[in-house]
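dumping this here before i forget
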Amino acid sequence: MKTKQVLATIGISALTTLLVLLGYAVFLKPSNTYGGQQPGVVPTNYMLTGQREVGAPVGAVDFTQPSLIATPAVVHIKTKTNAKQVNNNLPKTRQNPFSDLMDEDLFNQFFGGGRMNIIPEQKASGSGVIISEDGFIVTNNHVVENADEITVTLNNKRTYKAKVIGTDPAYDLAVIKIEAAGLPYLLYGNSDDVKIGQWVLAIGYPLNLETTVTAGIVSAKARSLGLNKDKTGNPGGAVESFIQTDAAVNMGNSGGALVDTDGKLIGINSAIASPTGYYSGYSYAIPVNIAKKVVDDIIKFGTVQRGYLGIQFGNASDMTEDQKKKNNIPTEAYDGIYATDVPSDGGAYAAGIKIGDRIQKINGVAISSGGELQEQVSRYKPGDKISVSVLRGGKSITYSVTLKNKAGNYEIVKNDTELDKLGADFTTLDAKKAKEYDISGGVVVKKINEGALNDQTRMKDGFVILKVNEKNVKSVEEFKKIINGEKNITISGFYPGYDGLYEYPISLED
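structure:
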């Protein structure tokens, strides 16, 4: 009996181990792919009767197959933004001498400081691309930005409500999700392999039409147009490296697919160059190699993990001789990307890069424009190491640079949802200033951008926050902790040089 019991125990243990390993492989095995796509898995829309194998050599140009593949995976996005009251943000014109009797809002109503305007309900539409069978969709940030309601209609006319998973205006990308299964989706191509002159198709829902396919060729790469802005409204913090095509794109195509003749996704249509607002010859798409990094970060972390090289740069062709001299750039230089500033707290400075260095390569990839530089660096997160080759004094030198986040460290960036909703730049009040104001500390509202502070209050830049919901605030970190998870807050503080305390009630409801 003992022998049988031992053998039975061994058998049960072996079976249990096998089941655990099988379960891990099926359900828990980590994936290095983006947006839920699994290597080797081909969605049904690529398995059409009579279709050549994906990646097989192309004979005569035929857009039938890529159109059949891609159209089921491109969706129509409709948005609604509710009517709301907003502050016209007129500047404070005079000090309130009646602060003991009336607050700032009442004073401004009587004496012209500012007023509330009504923005009516707005509706808009755009396009999106399904990137996983369970309903993740990539589109442009400007398609879903500030929307209160998002509706997604598939190519087969089925309609779903969608929720926003995350957005990033610096890249003009967003990820939304519908609750569905077994959906067709587009496989990622490789935008690095895209060649000028190759055929491409743009697919979307322009001008509220049904699914529309247009064809063209790639006419340029790494275009920078100055359209995007980061969360603070700063165009300098944006990332642009567009694929330029002459495929016809109009309003409503935004967020749709740019595909190659295999039907693989190589870009997200984002903009047009036009004096009229309608297509006039050129359109622009975000390369898929940028998009899939942004998508993966948003799904995994809720926000983009962006690594910063730690330099400011410029093209020699755009500089005057005085600017070249100031930045230690040879006056005879007529082209190339040069470091014009290397802050001491950045990764580039720590590695040894200097002002006046010409950036030649990032991880072995040649760099000839600011767009190419941004595109390469944007693929990495804080803490990643990249090789940067520079030309200095006629000699090529390669440095290993560890990228940092915007805060200047190597940590994964958390999604400060409530802080982002307020829409402002905050900084901890300087200790000397605190002593001058005879307070123990506070948080300064450096700059108000788009968000709750701008929409719901008449707060001005320079306001010093002392309390939130009657709790003392002495640093930005304390501020974050107090508002984390709150739906409604009341901010209390003062304006340096003005008498009285001010209170601003704010809703942070989604």
